[in-house]
Each structure stands twice: as structure tokens, then as C-alpha cells.
Amino acid sequence: MAQQVALVTGGGAGLGLAIASALVAAGTTTIICGRNEEKLAAAQQSLGPLCHTRVLDVTQLAAIPAFVAEIIETFGQLDVLVNNAGINYKKPFTEVTDEEFQMVMSTNLNAVFAMSREAAKAMLQQGSGCIINISSMAAQYGIPKVIAYSASKTAIEGMTRAMAVELSPLGIRVNCIAPGFIYSDMTAAALNSDPERKAKVFGRTPMGKMGQPQDIGSAVAFLASPAASYITGVVLPVDGGNSIGF
Ligand code: NDP
What we know:
By secondary structure, the chain is of the alpha/beta class. Helices cover 46% and strands 15% of the residues. The chain has one domain (5-182, 214-237): Rossmann fold (3-Layer(aba) Sandwich). Strands 3-2-1-4-5-6-7 form a seven-stranded parallel beta sheet, with helices on both faces. Helix 4 (98-126) packs parallel to helix 5. The structure holds NADPH dihydro-nicotinamide-adenine-dinucleotide phosphate. It is an enzyme of class 1 (oxidoreductase).
């Protein structure tokens, strides 16, 4: 995958950093974006010269067309978009405010749409490209206290299929990865304060352990590579069996 250019939203930390790391290891020029410049700079330091950073809050939808245009202008192409940036609010259903619901939808769904639309315009001109969305177990089964997150991730999976049927005939593959429970700041926040939830996670994961961020990086590198050239429209669980667990 040398000579390819990838953009990973939220690539400065957690799964996004592992995704960027896997793409860089495959020789891909990888741009990571996020809100926190220091976090991005630290990631760039660890990933080396194939990694480039851009500060962007993906909820600023109006900024996305110029953001993507600048990347095309600077790097000449965009071959892979990984819509990884995401947030979660854990709160009882009746206590979630409209603003909180909207914030999660804005980050996890609206931004994915806007980013994909702009990337697809460039990929259509190239006649090739690959978009990978990051979903969740919250789209495979019901999880309490994450209503907006569940709604956003379920929508991502539908959007993946709709984009795949429209864009695949034109040379753009669109796929989705549904990570199980993977070590990151997000899961630490969701599970460490809730031993009952943590026990449930392990109880229904046949492999009996949480995943590592690299597990998601490897799956993205595969789906982005020529080895996956006949794969489009799938939702690939990377979950130690959690989604099919009893
Ligand atoms: P983290 O909270 O560790 O990282 C989230 C990343 O998203 C950060 O780099 C953050 O960067 C970025 N981000 C958040 N909001 C914005 C924004 N408005 N604009 C730009 N960047 C933003 O989460 P994870 O690594 O755990 O999660 C990554 C993705 O994987 C998410 O989509 C999540 O839903 C999904 N996922 C994770 C699972 C897990 O087990 N960890 C399980 C299932 C799905 P910054 O702060 O610099 O903006």
C-alpha cells in the first residue's frame, strides 16, 4: 500500500492511533486528524515521517469540504478514509438531553456522512478508493445507557451498505468494522466504573478477553489493501466472538 494516501479521523489516540500505525506499517502516507494538537503531535512523533497531522473538529461540518480539498492539494490523492472519530455518553435513557444526543450524532454520524461525501468526490475523480467506517457492538445488540451511541452506530452500518451499493460500481469500496470491547480510554471510562457491565462483557465473549487496538488496526489494513479488493458493504465484527456470544 505504498504510494497510497489515507486519512484517519481521531487518529491521535486509541483505536485511531492503532489504525494509523497499521497503515503506516503498510507504507501508506497517513494523515491523522483530531481536536487536540498535542495528542496529534505525540502520535506523529511515534509514527514517523509517513504520518501527518491536521487539527480538525469533525463536528464543524462546514469546514470539512475545505479540509479534504487541502489534503488532496497537498498529497495529490486520497485513497483511504477511515471514519474512526467517535464519542460516547453513558447515561440512563430518560436523562439524556437533546443536546447530548445531538452531540453524539453530530460526531459519530453527521461528520461521517460529510467526510465520506467529500472523500468520495475525490475518489470518484481518481476512479478508486476505499472508505471504512467504525461501528460498535452497540449496533449488533441492545446495550443500556448508550442511546445516542447505539443510534449513531446502527445508522453507520446502514449508511455503509447504502454507500457501498451506490459507490462500488464506480470503484469505491465501502466497509465497516464493528469492534468488540477493545482497550482504550473510551472503554476504560465505560467499564472501570461499572463492574457488572464489565462482567457481562467478559461473560459473552467466547475468547474470554478484551481486544487490543492493534486488532482493529490489522482489520483496517486488510480491508484497505488489495487483498480485500472483492469485499464491499460488509460489517466485520472484530470482537473475540462477542457479537455471537451466549
Ligand atoms: P478514544 O476516546 O480513545 O478516541 C477517540 C478519538 O476520536 C480521539 O482521537 C479523539 O481525538 C477523536 N475525536 C473525538 N471527537 C472528535 C471530534 N469532534 N473531532 C475530531 N476528532 C474527535 O476512543 P476509541 O479509540 O475507543 O474509539 C475510536 C472509535 O472506535 C470510535 O468511533 C468508537 O465508537 C469505536 N469503538 C471503540 C470501541 C472500543 O472498545 N474502544 C468499541 C467499539 C467501537 P481528539 O480528542 O484529539 O479530538
